[in-house]
Amino acid sequence: MLILGIETATERVSVALGGHEGVIAQFEVTKGRRHAETLVPAIDFVCTQVGIELDEVGLVAVDVGPGLFTGMRVGLASAKAFAQALRIPMIGISSLDLLAFPCRHADKVVVPVIDARRGEVFYAMYRQVPGGVQQVAEPAVGPIEDLVADLMARSQDALLVGDGALRYREEILEGFHCEIGGDAHPSAGPLVLLAHARALREEWVNPWEIEPIYLRAPDAQINWSTRAARS
Amino acid sequence: MLQLRASSVADTHAIAAAVASLARAGDMILLAGEMGAGKTAFAQGFGRALGVEEPITSPTYTLVHSYDLPPSQRRARTLHHADLYRLERTTEVAELALAELAEFGGIVLIEWGDVVESTFGDHLTVLLSNVIDDDAGGEEADPAADELVSDSRRHVEIAGVGSSWAARWERIAWALEQFA
Description:
heterodimer; A: alpha/beta; Nucleotidyltransferase, domain 5; 5-stranded mixed β-sheet; 7 helices; 29% strand; B: alpha/beta; Rossmann fold; 7-stranded mixed β-sheet
């Protein structure tokens, strides 16, 4: 089954095509954050380069976050539109899974850390299992001190990846000795590979069942009570 | 905090223009005040000062309007004008991702932003209110009467939160001196 992977959850826009042969085409831009302008031409480009028509695609995989709201909005809306127009199923995969997966050969706890802005990061922890990685700590959002406290509590050798790890490198290393490296942004290549593994198990869903993972402050009613004039 | 007085819409525009002259990419400016207090008028003066030529209209129903700024305007790339009036829940505000719009070369004006003020980082709050007109018998201007409002005098209270505004405060105060 041919899979189209769409990745826009961080500053990078990444598109890949692949399936049982692995990734057969991939294109990405990591500067300018022009998700809306770049995405569709990028899809057209990868299809053209490998001579594939969109109607040959059997599944759309998309990064469902956490990450940039503005990016995810573009990626999810486009991915759903393609899936609905082509009448094909979808697989949504977390940005944290996508950052951890390429580190599946590291012999450390893998901790993807994504910049959540305003001094906070999204993070989760993974360990290696045959053929991939498995989450060992639920995704969380919090200040760097929370991440450092969680790393200290686990006190295992850790490999931190992602733009959050790079941005807050000094603060993290001050609190906990670990390795920081690997990918800064998730990519559509690993997205296609992971989606393929799930597609073999038929773990796909309908486009309307795909939801973004925002992982932000709990929802609350806006207090308009002071706004008497609002009718 | 600055306490200013605008005696006409032109004054409101001029105050907005003075703030715009010191604004830059990344800024979030909350516009507070009741219906008809001049929030959209402020946004219009602000946008015009940055070189927006298209008409700036209230984004109440569309939530966010974005205006590309002319390339000669090096202060920012885009002016975003948001209105939270129609929103009921904090996640709806979060989904607008206003901070991301600011972060990426944008200046963001947020009408009714004061109702979720604590969710913003550094920001400027502009509180507009209609002045009670003594000649009209001490009654507050009726916000429903457009003509009255458009000519009414206003109080404009400006306060900055965070280091990025503290660093500019003296210049802002100086630029607005004539309205103090």
